[in-house]
């Protein structure tokens, strides 16, 4: 299978592993000359918080989730790395629950690979809170690369 499009999906929990995610997506995308979709997925509450933090004027601005994603530090950091390695990319912002939204993005963009981050979780943590990465691994329409943080869940 030829690799043409890679989805790198990030959320608020990925700030501490941006370097690892960037390295992994470059290793996957660059040799294949694939385009990377840099997607930041926000829940509704996270989106509201980011709009406030990034000082979007909700009264006068027509707010596009892609613009919000472009201004988010995680995406800025990832763009810098992709540009340094001459990897083509597009930016997409999405609002929804992390796991299903990532799977929907992978499906609607017909991607060939998904790259997601996560951390080691205790069995109780998995049972009580679920796992975005686990949902993506089980439901994505293509292979998934999981980039694990070495920091165990608290």
TrEMBL record:
Pfam families: Usp. Residues 5-148 form the UspA domain. Gene3D superfamilies: HUPs. Signal peptide: none annotated. InterPro entries: Rossmann-like_a/b/a_fold (IPR014729), Universal_stress_UspA (IPR006015), UspA (IPR006016). It comes from the Archaea. Belongs to the universal stress protein A family. This is UspA domain-containing protein.
